[in-house]
Structures are given as structure tokens and as C-alpha cells.
Amino acid sequence: MELGSDWILVSTCKYDYVLFVNIESSNSCCPIIRCSLKVLNDLTVECFDSNQRRDSSELTWLLGESNRLTRWSQLPNICTHLSNTCQTLTAIPTTDEHVNVVKDRFKQLIHVSKNDEGNDDNSQLEFRLKYMLKRLADHKTQSKTLKKLSTLTK
């Protein structure tokens, strides 16, 4: 059964599923998993786009409401569908997307520092993180304002 040249079967005894991954390596210094699918031991199929789980109803046209394989010959159609519909990872993230990632990391650090009550330096760390997070939010607001001004002056 041919799944396409970009698909790799990953099978281990350690898990109760078989994993198929689609690797993108042409535009990156390291391979990236574009999309993947799991076939669980009850033949239920789970699909992923990069690291996000896709809606299980997406394959009802092929697998029915049960979302289960009835024949292994259904796999090539699923792989083709995922290859054609998964996100393009070749797009370069915008500055705003990078800023949002950094903001999310700061929020995670603030949350972790609040939960680590054994460390006396956490209140200072939390204050500094909140300050930097505020500055990032201010930067984004200033950036939007500058973009609006530049379009008005043209």
C-alpha cells in the first residue's frame, strides 16, 4: 500500500496505536512534522495538523460517524487528504506572531512563579515578568498606531 513519499510509519510496542507522520524538510534546517495521524488499537483515527488535533468529523466522508477504519486501503485517501489540507509551514511568522508567542511564554512564567511558593524571590520575578509583558503589549499597540498613521499620510 503506497501512502506517498512524504509519509513515514512509526510503530512501537510501547503504544497502543500506529503513527503515520508527514515530514517537511525542504524549507527548514531541521525536519518538521507537517501533519500526522494515529490509528488506535480499535481502528479509530485521530488526525493532527502540526501539533494541533484536527476535528474528528473531518473524515466522516470516508470513515463514517464512527471515525474508524474498515479497511487499511482507506489510509492512502486519508494521507492524501491531510497532505492537501494541512497548514503550510513554509510561511515566515510575522513580528506580531513572534510577540504573541513571547507574551504567552511570559504568562506561563508568571503562572509558574505564582505556584512556586517556596521561593522568596518570586514576587520580584513576577513583578518583572508582568512589567515586560506590559511593555510587549504597549509595543503591539504602538505598532498598530504607527501602521494606521503611515497609511493616513500616504
Structure description:
By secondary structure, the chain is of the alpha+beta class. The chain folds into two domains: 7-85, no CATH class; 95-152. Helices cover 44% and strands 19% of the residues. The chain has four helices and five strands. A five-stranded antiparallel sheet has the order 1-2-3-4-5, covered by helices on one side. A hairpin with a 7-residue loop joins β2 (17-24) and β3. The longest helix is centred in the C-terminal third of the chain and has 31 residues, at 122-152. The radius of gyration is 22 Å and the shape is extended. The N and C termini lie far apart (58 Å). The mean pLDDT is 79.
Rg calculated over all Cα atoms? 22 Å
Helices and strands: which structural class?
Answer: alpha+beta
Unreliable stretches: none
Distance between the termini: 58 Å
* Number of separate domains: 2
- Note the run of SSEs as H and E: EEEEEHHHH
Helix content: 40-55%
Strand content: 15-25%
Q: What are its keywords?
A:
154 residues, 5 strands, single chain, extended, alpha+beta, 4 helices
Helix and strand layout, with pairings?
Layout lengths: L6 E5 L5 E8 L7 E9 L4 E5 L2 E2 L6 H4 L11 H11 L9 H21 L6 H31 L2
Antiparallel strand pairs: 1-2, 2-3, 3-4, 4-5
Helix pairs in contact: 3-4
Q: What would a concise description of this structure say?
A:
The protein is α+β, with helices and mostly antiparallel strands. 44% of the residues lie in helices and 19% in strands.
